Amino acid sequence: MTETVDWRLPTPPGFRWPDGIRAAACFTFDVDAESPILFEYPETAAWLGVMSHQAYGARTGIARLLRVLDRRRIRATFFIPGYSAERWPAICRAIRDAGHEIAHHGYLHEGAHGAIPAVEEERLLRGLASLDEVLGVHPTGYRGPNWELTFETPAILARHGFVYDSGLMDADHPYVLATSAEPGAATLVELPGHWSLDDWDVALERLIERAQAIDGLWIATAAEIAAHVATLDLEPVVHRRPILPD
Ligand SMILES: [Zn+2]
Questions:
Q1: Measured between alpha carbons, how far is 115 from 223 in angstroms, rounded to an integer?
Q2: 233 C-alpha vs ligand 1 centroid, how far in Å?
Q3: Ligand 1 geometric centre to CA of 13 (Å)
Q4: Ligand 1 centroid to 145 CA: how many Å?
Q5: How far is the CA of 113 from the centre of ligand 1 (A)?
Q6: How remote is the CA of residue 71 from the centroid of ligand 1, in Å?
Q7: Digit-coded pLDDT (tens) for 11-69
């Protein structure tokens, strides 16, 4: 059968938001702290200036964020590398205790490119163990460090009970992601993100104010949006690995 696309449809076939909702906004924060730079450049562990630069979020920025979110009465999603939870347990517990969702973001913020599946899985488990030990949380969501996923990552996530991934960039709407092309393969909900929506330094409170003024905009955590999408009868999207031409 030849595949066809109906480009007139404003949303993918079968997709809909909850009644009365026409879009969703999900405020997400990655608690990277020192982990990305320690993974890429371990020698920086001895460099106080660099470490202080990386510590700003955990030591100072997150508390400010929590105050803004509290003022605006918004629950957000924080993607936390296991190493960040171990190094900054108090502020990570404060995130949890403020009612925000905690999701997985690697152990030492390891980019997946070049890693064999066994290594990817080992890092995933190490991150899970840290979030459990420090926060007593078993996350249902994942965002790949550096937004890096391999074609094997979704199956590894499904195997360990994850409900959603938020790191692919090929859609405007959430979709159901097939973990392989095999019929009946396990699925995840994909909540796509994009670099262009990733702000290091954003005028957050003004942005939230604007979002809250929009009629029919659902401000929710990633897990809440994923739970809604999982109830829809959507055809899973199969990602086929490109075959390089000779
Ligand atoms: Zn990150």
A1: 27
A2: 31
A3: 32
A4: 5
A5: 14
A6: 25
A7: 889 999 999 999 999 999 999 999 999 999 999 999 999 999 999 999 999 999 999 99
Q: Among 2-6, 148-152, 156-160, 194-198, name the one with the lowest average pLDDT.
A: 194-198
CA 13 from chain centre, in angstroms, equals 24
Q: What is the pLDDT of residues 206-232, one digit of tens each?
A: 999 999 999 999 999 999 999 999 999
Q: 130-149: per-residue pLDDT in tens?
A: 999 999 999 999 999 999 99
C-alpha angle 13/183/167, rounded to 5°? 60
DSSP 59: I
**C-alpha 128: how far from chain center:** 14
CA 229 to ligand 1 center in whole angstroms: 24
| Domains delineated in the chain | 23-230 (3.20.20.370)
pLDDT at 198: 74
Residues 169-195 as b or e (16 or more Cβ within 10 Å = b): eeeebbbbbbbbeeeeeebbbbbbbee
**Alpha carbon distance 93, 88 (integer Å):** 9
Cα separation, 238 vs 243, whole angstroms: 15
Measured distance CA(218)–CA(42) in Å, rounded: 41
The Å distance, Cα 54 to ligand 1 centre, comes to 12
Q: Residue 209, class by beta-carbon neighbours within 10 Å (0-12 exposed, 13-18 middle, 19+ buried)?
A: exposed
pTM of the entire predicted model: 0.91
Place of tokens 């690697």: 106
